TrEMBL record, chains A, B:
A GO MF term: transaminase activity
Official protein name in the record: GntR family transcriptional regulator/MocR family aminotransferase
Keyword Transferase in record: yes
Keywords noted in UniProt: Aminotransferase, Transferase
Organism: Paenibacillus endophyticus
Length: 416, 416
């Protein structure tokens, strides 16, 4: 189903190599944007708030097309939300999330992602950090978390911040290595089966079944992060793990940040009934939902079919960008690179067959005005590197900018 | 400055009594609203989302007047925010909070609360649970937190949830007992000096100075929660602790939930420079700001003077309600009760001089259709009780409803 990649070198359960040839990696978010640390009282209050660098062609994997955002409709939803809920604006809402939003979300998840749940199982949240924070409190007796290696470092760090032990489990072209998982002592595993982050591999059906069997046999929990599950461009959809789960072992996490906008910071989690029961025994302050106003707006957005319409629109948009990017890479970078993860999601992975380090490639791209992203932070442990791997997001770039960007990469990497 | 109360019975450093005559207390938020635990898939998706019970006269201390919320202006701010920031809607924002909002907030805090800080010291957050979560990670080597007794249980629980040891320090009519604090081993103290929650006492200037000296001498941190600092109805304002702090020992926390609406779930924290520096050394995933759209809207709301105008409006509104409530209580409940905390804030404390338990008083009020709130959860330890104490919020009730409510209390408590 996927192009063979050959980058998974570590054997199951292994993972400690001392081969990484470079130490200094480029942070995926510019550090200067993360904290404003100048302690000068005289600082300019009107520094632009954007993290976008207009002068760069930025293959930012977290960016979306800002023109695709339905400003007028969203404004209308906000206005309606405020007006129709005006008598509730003076009160705190349900910390688990507004009942109305959870109800329409349950319908959406059933219809579109095969996730079968009641509104009572849904916890509306303010992002992955929040969701993982709750899960580590709920599952506080199981401190060993198996984690995709390479995997989404921001989520891995949340487990570490919350005092968990993280067991890196190598990823192959079928997702997380089940043999390695089975031999680990983990009681929780975090996976991205729809489109593994960052490699892009998709977990086939038989592996999903085997993963569920592992969880059932061990009374373990699977955290299924379906972060960009709405974006599948080729082939038949594979059912979510949650939809195949008959024993309440899957915790499903989804987000509005990929389809609509990351600016709302709104996500959701579907807990198995047993964990909802456990949650009810915790101090209720552990929960705090995002803005009620935006939750009400999101409810109307889904109810009035804008959500489905928007998904179709951006899926088509990003499918085009995705195909265009693959075409550009094939045409301009051709035999110098190898692409993986090209059937889904909002980014691709690219191995660059050149005797340069990742840092050298990123630096020379940056000098040419192009930002591409590192793979290194996604690894917990050091690992053997055949070819440097970079990843490129395409959702935030126009076709023209993409073309300019790839041509610049061709020039700076292979023609100079 | 404040009416003598006589309710502080525990001596400094003590606090363990076995006097509490009642075990079953009414939760301050109805439990049924906190979790929807029915696991029936068939649940009605259109259950109303409000936590307000229209048929009750509810002296809810967390409620605000929903009619005071400037719907039209806020809609305009949201619309402008989306339109003027449309090119940023596809990107994540600064996890510390939008620079523009932090800049206008720094101005506001300096002008109105005497809090002197740079925008770089401000962390925009999604509520107290989030802020305390960050602080406990930042101050992870100091696990002993002195906490007002009685104090705000929701905040206390956050310290406990994050693995801190909480040392209850008794509160008197000048705020937290400094003698008890000085003899404790605490390295952090959480205080609400503007209007102690829940007793309503205000910390006088000399006590503020002494508290700062304690922090300086011990290199300790003071967490100043100025949750309703905008609401002072009588007497000269007393400077915030942060404004008196010359050694960077005060962490100042404020919220938009009391002046504007709790539905946004937006607050902020001002960190001393040293802690901002420490924050920069933590994994940046520890931070996640609320919705960018609402942050942009809030920035415009403050910039365009709507914030100041709104504070004046609601301060006048709540001053009237406050005076009216005190008058009603004096007229109808008279010598049966004793009120404290009447100079500030959005709630009062009322001792009921009757040989009934708090539960009995709350239950009989509820039977008459009036919700008043318990004091018990605010205590960490058991304590001697002279008279049952209840607290009544007034911001969410019209003058007419207040009058009906107090008359009903008179009837059910003292005339039957």
């Amino acid at each position: 189903m996927l192009t063979a990649e050959g980058y998974v070198v570590s054997k199951p359960r292994s993972g400690l190599f001392v081969v990484t040839p470079y130490k200094h990696v480029i942070a995926s978010i510019p550090d200067t944007e993360v904290y404003d640390l100048s302690r000068k009282i005289t600082s300019n209050p009107h520094i632009p708030t954007s993290v976008k660098h207009a002068d760069f062609i930025d293959f930012d994997p977290t960016a979306l097309d800002h023109d695709a955002f339905p400003i007028r409709t969203w404004n209308k939803m906000l206005k309606e939300a405020l007006e129709s809920h005006s008598s509730m604006i003076g009160n705190y809402g349900n910390p688990q999330g507004e009942q109305g939003l959870r109800a329409v979300l349950a319908d959406y998840l059933r219809n579109s992602r095969g996730v079968y749940c009641s509104p009572e199982q849904i916890v509306i949240g303010v992002g992955m950090a929040y969701s993982i924070g709750i899960l580590t409190k709920l599952l506080k007796d199981t401190r060993s978390v198996a984690f995709e290696e390479p995997g989404y470092n921001l989520v891995r760090d949340q487990f570490l911040l919350n005092g968990c032990e993280v067991l890196p489990i190598s990823v192959n072209d079928k997702g997380v290595s089940l043999a390695a998982l089975e031999e680990s002592k983990a009681q929780i595993v975090y996976v991205t089966p729809s489109h593994q982050f960052p490699t892009g591999s998709i977990m086939p059906y038989p592996e999903r079944e085997r993963l569920l069997e592992w969880a059932n046999a061990r009374n373990a929990y699977i955290i299924e992060d379906d972060y960009d599950g709405e974006f599948r461009y080729l082939g038949k959809p594979i059912p979510s793990l949650q939809s195949l789960d008959t024993h309440g072992r899957v915790i499903y996490i989804g987000t509005f940040s990929k389809v609509l906008t990351p600016a709302l910071r709104m996500n959701y989690m579907v807990l198995p009934p047993k964990l909802i029961e456990q949650l009810s025994n915790m101090p209720h302050e552990v929960l705090y939902a995002p803005s009620r106003v935006e939750q009400w707006a999101m409810q109307s957005f889904i109810e009035q079919d804008n959500w489905y319409r928007h998904i179709r629109k951006v899926r088509n948009l990003y499918r085009k960008r995705h195909h265009h990017l693959i075409g550009l890479i094939q045409n301009h970078l051709g035999q110098h690179v190898e692409i993986t993860g090209q059937n889904a999601g909002l980014h691709i992975q690219m191995a660059v067959k050149k005797c340069k380090t990742t840092k050298e490639l990123i630096d020379s791209a940056a000098e040419a005005g192009v930002k591409v992203y590192d793979f290194q932070k996604m690894w917990m442990n050091q690992h053997p590197v055949h070819y440097p791997k970079l990843y490129l997001g395409f959702a935030g770039l126009s076709l023209a900018d993409m073309e300019t960007g790839i041509r610049l990469l061709q020039k700076v990497w292979f023609m100079e």
